[in-house]
Design goal:
Helix content is 80%, strand content 0%. It has 297 residues and is mainly alpha-helical. Helix 7 packs antiparallel against helix 8 and helix 10 packs antiparallel against helix 11. About 4% of the residues have low confidence.
Amino acid sequence: MKAFAALVRREFIEHRGAFFTGPMILVAILFGATLLAFTVGRIDVRFSGAVLTIAPLRFYEFGFLGFGAAWCLYLLAVLFFYCADGFAADKRNNSMLFWKSMPVSDLRMLLSKLAAGVTILPGTVYAIALLSGLLLFGVAFITMLVNGTASAAMFGSIVMIYLNVAASLLVAIAVGLLWYLPYMALVGALATAIGRWAIPVSLLLPSIAAVLEWVTLGGLHPFATRTWQYLGYRSAFPLGEEGYPDIWLAGSERFDAVAFTLDLIGRTDWLQVLIGAAFALVVLYIASEYRRRAPAN
């Protein structure tokens, strides 16, 4: 178990630029831009009437949710490239012979890479997303101090918004990782064999599969096949249209993490999640067998 944990930690050390350093730089830039917008008068913090008490809270809620959604998209993109790079790193830097000499099986080595991709690496981005929320928290409270609406009740409202959005982001990231697990495993398995070429190949595979079905079974065109429809369904985030976020945007109530979580869990096809997990294990096992039999360098 200690060896497996060390392998997962190794993945973080090797890829901390994408999962820690880069996001921290982005946070600094965004926070600086936000402060600059307030200090140079681009945003007017002087409100009146009902807007005096509602606007800062709504601004914070929208802002934190927007940052959270942006970080989720960032995580999705970076994990795709991580799988293409991390699973091929040993072969690319000529260290395969060293890792083959370790008392760890090839399957366990690949599982540690996948485990890092669904635990410590997303956890780092999530922590930075929370940091973004804290910085925005400070901006929102300073805004209320400027317009004279700061109070213990308003401070408590911001805290509740922060906790609700933070919990919702955690649930969304967890469900997203489970939903997209087979894609991560497939890209990683391809990278084990063909290295970084796994990126273009993995993008072409859906089209190739759809064309093969169209050629063999017929249809109007390759994008009207069952394969393409299934891949489209499997690639879309489970929340879909008319989910809780759409209902929340149409109303005026505060964002509710419990309602969001129940809606997301109810809309997720958990049978597909189980099938995807089984698929991930199978392709990683095949990749480990290839890695075990392939030349060391």
